[in-house]
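Thanks for the sequence, V.! I ran Kinetochore protein SPC25 right away. Repeating your input here for the record:
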Amino acid sequence: MASIRDYNVVEQFNSRLEEIRTKLLDQAMGEVLNDRVTELYQEHRRYMKAVLGTCFKKCKEDETIFDMIQSYKEDLKEKTSLQKEKSAEHLEVVSEIEDKEHHKALLFQRIEKLKKDQAKNRELIQSQNKANKDRLKKLNKCKDIFQKHLSLEIRKIQGEKLQFVFRNISHKDPDMVHTFLLQLNAENVYHIISCDPPLEKMAHLERRLQETNNFSAFLANIRREFVALHSGAKTA
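Predicted structure:
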């Protein structure tokens, strides 16, 4: 048996002990690591299971939320469509109201214009009637003078007309009447309505009266023309 004092033997013994220690240590560490790995694996599985459960639950919630969002979107789309229809109807009603207001304003303008025109026409008619009455009044004032010097009678006929009756035209029959009918129109223009007996120059005498407005000269010329009918002479 080799002596323990031999250096090589000691070295071999120590080396062998180190190998055994290392092997035992490795074996122990392996068991510890295996247990730790197994523990970590189990812990990881539990964690993943919890995570998967949470994710599944979250997915369910998200799916519900997604369905709610889709429902909200469809509801919003439907409400938007209804709002557009109502807006279109509102615009149509507003446009119709504006058109009616515009026509109403035009009618008021036309009515006001008609009122003003009627007022002007009324004033014009009143003014013309007053002028006609003034002229008739003047003619009536001259009635006595004409009757005395020209054997002329002036009669007022319905419709603002005057009939002029001449006598003492014919020496053979002094009571024979010669007449003409005169009217003053809305423009204050004299017009001869009729003449008995007819005078060839009546149209000419009427134009002269309208141009000069000299009524006295007109009556004198009419009497002259009536006289000329009986004398057979023609006046210039």
